[in-house]
Each structure stands twice: as structure tokens, then as C-alpha cells.
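Structure ticket #2291
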Amino acid sequence: MDGATLKTRLLEELHQLIDAKIASIRSTLSDISDSMKNDTKSSAGDKFETGREMMQIELGKQQLQLNKQLQLKKDLSQINPNKSYTSIEFGSLVFTNKGIYFMVFAHGKLSFDQQDYYILSMASPIGQAMKGAKENDSLSFNKQNIVIEKIL
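Resolution: structure written out below.
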């Protein structure tokens, strides 16, 4: 599989993961909104107000999560899988002697087509250590020597 095809497939997989999170968050937001609409004030007024405030806080948290996922989706859509990179930057697929890293956002390990990929942010410690490195460069991270073998 060529580099552009691999990156396209990885991007599709990441889009699916984000879409699933967005759907889950939207479902939770809907459930919270329904609960708030259906919650009737009882004689225990303070209990009602506390419950309502808790739902409002949760609604805010979920909305922040939704906004974050929508931003990640937007960031992913800006990656051109056909672009070739001479150094490591956002959107690079990096093959090293220690693993394969896709520099997009913090997600961690993604197993795909019987291969492990590490989906990382450029802001992560290893992303900062690799930033600007070129093929055949060697760098030290956490007392390990990492050799950049290929950048797509």
C-alpha cells in the first residue's frame, strides 16, 4: 500500500472514531436536555435546584467535549494525504525504529490492518522532540534512541 493510500485509510479510521464520539456526546446532550425539561419542581425545592444545577454543569461539560471533537474533525480534514513531507510536522506519518507515528492529535495507539500506529499531537513531548526532524535523523527521547526512517 502506498503512503497516500495508507494515510487516507488512517484518516478515514480517525474520522469514524471522532464521528462515533460526536454521536455519543450528542445523545448524552439530548438525554440531559430531556431530563431537564421533564424534571418537575417538587416540595423539596432545594433538592430540585441542586439536581438542575448538576445537570446544567454536565450539559456544559458535554458541550465542551462536543466542541473539542468538532475541532479535531476540522483539523483532520485539513490534512492532505498526498502531501509529501521533508521534515516532521502536523499531518506527517513517521516510520521509526520504535514504531509508526501519525502526527495529528493525541489519541494513543490505534491498531489498524494488523499494525500498531501511535496517533500523537505535535504538542506532546515526543511530538515536540520529533518536530522538524528529517529522514535518517536520530534523536534521544526517554533515554531511547529513535531513528527517523521514513516520513510520508
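Closing remark: Helices lie at 3-38, 45-77, 125-130.
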